[in-house]
Amino acid sequence: MRRLPEPLLVLVDQFARLPGLGPKSALRCALTLLKWPEEETRRLGTALLELRAALRLCSRCNAVAETDPCALCADPSRSRELLCLVPDWDSLLALEEGAFYNGQFFILGGLSLDQAGASDLEALEARLAEKEVREVILALGATVEADAAAAFLRHRLGSRFPQLRVTRLAQGIPLGGEVKFMDRETLRQSLRYRQDLA
Q1: Looking at residue 118, which CATH number applies to its domain?
Q2: pLDDT tens digit sequence for 109-148
Q3: Range of the domain at 19
Q4: Residue 109 CB neighbours (<10 A)
Q5: What CATH code is carried by the domain that includes residue 17?
Q6: Max CA distance (Å), the chain
Q7: What is the pTM of this model?
Q8: Is residue 105 part of a domain?
């Protein structure tokens, strides 16, 4: 394959760094931009620049927002007694889209809670020290990494805030699922987190 012109190569390299885009997809995106009218590509470039300038992280929950605090943290109708911990922005959006949770959020910035997450943990503990939160809900997923993060958080928060209730999202058989089609781990979790029938 012939060597790409330098400006195109730079753009392809940048696109290839995005999640889900390999070198071939990145090249297709770059070539598509070359086919767009010039004003459209300029609008895209301006939008990218303004994205960084207009958005910031909320100091209360780590969400990407235009204001600090963000709209969710500033909303007086949301319960301040419930704090849902999520690993990332996508998880917050998924829970918020359902419109069935009316508490506050805190984004951990991933499930790896080692040195990289120390500042996030300090911010979380500072928020809990305000004593508004009565229950922390761990909405971390059902992976081995999520289990490790949940165990770490349960221990750390339980030892530093003994009055705090720490819960986790239920795990097990999904709605519409049949026992005979479930894998062993899903069945184990379903038995472990079984519920009383009223």
Answers
A1: 3.40.1360.10
A2: 888 766 446 788 999 999 999 999 999 999 998 888 988 9
A3: 6-54
A4: 19
A5: 1.10.8.420
A6: 70
A7: 0.78
A8: yes
Neighbours of 83 (CB within 10 A): 21
The answer to whether position 88 is within a domain reads yes
Dist. CA 29–CA 34, nearest whole Å = 9
Short-list 169, 152, 185, 180, CA closest to 86:
169
Phi-psi label, residue 176: left if phi above 0, alpha if psi -120 to 50, beta otherwise:
left
Which one-letter amino acid corresponds to residue 34? Answer: L
Asked whether residue 113 falls in the same domain as residue 157, the answer is yes
pLDDT tens digits for 18-35?
A: 999 999 999 999 999 999
Give 127: exposed, middle or buried? Use CB within 10 Å, 0-12, 13-18, 19+.
middle
Report strand pairing: 64-65 vs 56-57. Answer: antiparallel
The pair of structure tokens assigned to 98 is 């359902």
Number of domains in the chain: 2
149 & 108 share domain: yes
Order of strands across the sheet that contains 135-138: 104-107, 82-86, 135-138, 165-168
